[in-house]
């Protein structure tokens, strides 16, 4: 699931991945390794395992979002019950 925003979405935009909701809560400046200035989108969500709130930071173009908080993190392992099927994705503009 790739996300490629041609323009910066407005704060309040919501993305749904299955039942997990990501709300854009801010944008922060970022300096890339090559020295160029850019911005990161800051999304608020709840962990798919423990429902703890946490934030995810992404560039305008990303191939996915973290579904779990740092305490529940399991890189490469799909969220339980989602294996073998497509994730439903929806976006609601603010």
Compile the SSE list and pairings.
Blueprint: E1 3-4, E2 14-17, E3 20-31, E4 37-46, E5 53-58, E6 61-62, E7 89-92
Antiparallel strand pairs: 1-6, 2-3, 2-7, 3-4, 4-5
Describe this structure in words.
With about 90 residues, the protein is mainly β. It has one domain. The protein has strands spanning about 5, 15, 20-30, 35-45, 55-60, 60, 90. The protein has a 5-stranded antiparallel sheet with strand order 5-4-3-2-7, with no helix packed on it. It has a two-stranded antiparallel ribbon with strand order 1-6. The protein starts with a strand and ends with a strand. The model has no long low-confidence stretch (mean pLDDT about 85).
- Number of separate helices: 0
How would you write the strand order of the largest sheet? 5-4-3-2-7
Strand % is 35-45%
**First-last Cα distance:** 21 Å
Instruction: Indicate the radius of gyration in whole angstroms.
Output: 14 Å
Feature tags:
single chain; 94 residues; mainly beta; two-stranded antiparallel sheet; 43% strand
Summarize the structure.
The chain is an all-beta fold and about 90 residues long. It is built from no helices and seven strands. β3 (about 20-30) and β4 (about 35-45) form a beta hairpin.
